[in-house]
């Protein structure tokens, strides 16, 4: 398909969108390079062999977003919207199609908190850290259930669901969205009423990049107690870890929903290590009482804990995961090359199952397996309420994380990850093997590219991994509201389902 750069740029200029940085033909300008890499998290997608956008458009207002989308549609440019740039597979920063641009929402980061209605309008370009800080400026008694890393963008995070320390109490971020402003595939700006119930359903968890550009979200704030207590407890010793994991699988998904305990398994030699870390919605004495009753093996003592308020908990958790205590800071300095895959567990993994995991994890000192409990309110929300289907019957979600620091290690690292994923097959959910769209994984399959390089016959039943039966409704919604596949990427919702 022929696309002209001049016509796109003159359309943008005529529309008053002037904050556009072009890739220069010979070498990239320093500004282009630093803007492109600013929020891009996975260094694998910053490499020179990866396709780069022709232009970075940074709208200053919602009118600019509308105009940018209209110009791209009119002049047939593939556009990728970027909010926080945290896509595991770099989908907001690169494409399979050489002719694409990025609409980066970093300047649209406003948060308007209304304490009378206990709601807020948050622009997609805000990070979750900016959102938490804006809420905390107004109140210590309300918060919002969203991710732990403060630099995650609201736009992509809410589009894919949003799991957090508050998920067992309040569900996904997307469960707490009550309205949204979207620029759709006709270039129209619509709200919940204007887009209709199907699109409003799809954009709360059906994955970013398929439905249009969400400019802002109206969210419900959630009530929190005056005190919350966060904790982190490390363990070593194989037998001890084995017993603890066994107990954790029984307790963490079923315990009082005010208590959230994640398990971190750290790989490497001479032995793997375990840590439990989490949050309790209540005071330290109440936490110790509850843990003594339900999970005494954890050995939790006051020295492992920090009693604070909700925003204090988010700062503590951010810092203990290596992030800045300044939650408004948009730049994540600890970037790496990484591959992450996800699984959901429906039956506890046996001790012998974990033995095999350890053996593989001993090979990689930069490997981490993160086990995050579900249960609580997640069991009571119907699996068709939103695109995210993994509710009742799912005990916890796993993330297998491997980081490395240079491109030469790509092949070996990716093949190690395949080995681990293959090994865990019998221990995790099946038919289909469940995955979480915010932990995006292109190994599951890709979307046929209509105007691009791959064929239409390519199987795309991977959508069932993320969405189970909800995948079929997502495909119908896509057909109805974006039949020309204007909003597309390597794993956007396809127009039809082709299985293997
Ligand atoms: P990015 O800007 O890369 O967007 C992701 C996708 O959504 C892209 O396809 C993009 O085009 C699309 N998109 C972005 N903005 C859009 C908009 N306004 N309208 C429509 N489409 C849009 N997840 C989780 O559930 N809980 C967690 O605790 C964490 N923690 C975490 C930590 C770290 C360090 C990383 C890198 C990631 C996570 N995640 C996570 C995963 C995270 O939720 C996921 O990567 C989100 O998609 C990131 O959203 P961004 O806006 O940052 O990404």
Descriptive overview:
It is built from 14 helices and 18 strands. The chain has 500 residues and is an alpha+beta fold. A seven-stranded antiparallel sheet has the order 15-12-14-13-17-18-16, sandwiched between helices. A five-stranded antiparallel sheet has the order 5-6-10-8-9. β5 and β6 form a beta hairpin. The model has no long low-confidence stretch (mean pLDDT 95). Bound molecules: dihydroflavine-adenine dinucleotide (FDA). The site of dihydroflavine-adenine dinucleotide (FDA) has 33 residues, from β3, α5 and β10. This is FAD-binding PCMH-type domain-containing protein. It holds the Pfam family BBE.
User: What summary fits the major beta sheet?
Assistant: 7 strands, antiparallel
Name the structural class.
alpha+beta
Mean pLDDT: 95
The count of DSSP E runs of length 2 or more, i.e. the number of strands, is 18
Uncertain stretches of 5 or more adjacent residues: none
Helix count from the secondary structure assignment: 14
Determine the N-to-C terminus distance.
Answer: 29 Å
Strand content: 15-25%
Radius of gyration: 22 Å
Residue share in helices?
25-40%
The ligands found in this model are: dihydroflavine-adenine dinucleotide
* Spatial order of strands in the largest sheet: 15-12-14-13-17-18-16
Outline = globular
């Amino acid at each position: 398909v022929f696309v002209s750069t001049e016509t796109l740029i003159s359309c943008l200029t005529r529309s008053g969108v002037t904050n556009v940085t072009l890739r220069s033909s010979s070498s990239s300008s320093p500004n282009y390079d630093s803007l492109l890499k600013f929020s891009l998290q996975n260094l694998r997608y910053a490499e020179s062999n990866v396709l780069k956008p022709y232009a970075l458009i940074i709208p200053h207002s919602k009118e600019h977003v509308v105009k940018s989308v209209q110009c791209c549609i009119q002049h047939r440019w593939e556009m990728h919207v970027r909010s926080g740039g945290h896509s595991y597979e770099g989908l907001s920063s690169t494409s399979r199609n050489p002719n694409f641009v990025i609409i980066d929402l970093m300047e649209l980061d406003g948060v308007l908190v209304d304490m009378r209605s206990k709601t807020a309008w948050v622009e997609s370009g805000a990070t979750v850290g900016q959102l938490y800080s804006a809420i905390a400026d107004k109140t210590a008694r309300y918060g919002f259930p969203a991710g732990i890393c403060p630099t995650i963008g609201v736009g992509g995070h809410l589009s894919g669901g949003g799991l957090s320390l508050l998920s067992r109490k309040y569900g996904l971020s997307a469960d707490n969205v009550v309205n949204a402003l979207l620029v759709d595939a006709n270039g129209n700006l619509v709200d919940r009423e204007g887009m209709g119930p199907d699109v409003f359903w799809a954009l709360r968890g059906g994955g970013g990049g398929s439905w249009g550009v969400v400019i802002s979200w109206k969210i419900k704030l959630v009530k929190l107690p005056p005190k919350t207590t966060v904790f982190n407890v490390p363990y070593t010793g194989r037998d001890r870890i084995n017993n603890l994991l066994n107990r954790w699988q029984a307790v963490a998904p079923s315990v009082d929903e005010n208590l959230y305990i994640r398990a971190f398994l750290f790989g490497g030699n001479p032995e793997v290590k375990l840590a439990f870390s989490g949050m309790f919605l209540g005071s330290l004495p109440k936490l110790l009482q509850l843990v003594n009753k339900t999970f005494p093996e954890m050995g939790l003592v006051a020295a492992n804990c920090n009693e604070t308020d909700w925003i204090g908990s988010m700062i503590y958790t951010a810092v203990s995961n290596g992030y800045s205590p300044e939650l408004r800071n948009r730049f994540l300095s600890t970037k790496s090359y990484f591959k992450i895959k996800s699984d959901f567990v429906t039956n506890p993994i046996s001790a012998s199952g974990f033995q095999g995991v350890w053996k593989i994890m001993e090979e990689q000192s930069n490997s981490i397996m993160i086990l995050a409990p579900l249960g609580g309110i997640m069991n009571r929300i119907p699996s068709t309420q939103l695109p995210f289907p993994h509710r009742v019957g799912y005990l916890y979600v796993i993330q297998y994380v491997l980081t490395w620091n240079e491109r030469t290690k790509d092949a070996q690292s990716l093949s190690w990850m395949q080995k681990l994923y293959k090994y865990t097959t019998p221990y995790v959910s099946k038919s289909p093997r469940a995955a979480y769209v915010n932990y995006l994984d292109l190994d599951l399959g890709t979307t046929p590219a209509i105007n691009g390089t791959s064929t239409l016959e390519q199987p795309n039943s991977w959508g069932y991994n993320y969405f189970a039966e909800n995948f079929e409704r997502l495909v119908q919604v896509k057909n109805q509201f974006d039949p020309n596949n204007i909003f597309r990427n390597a794993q956007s919702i396809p127009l039809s389902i082709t299985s293997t």
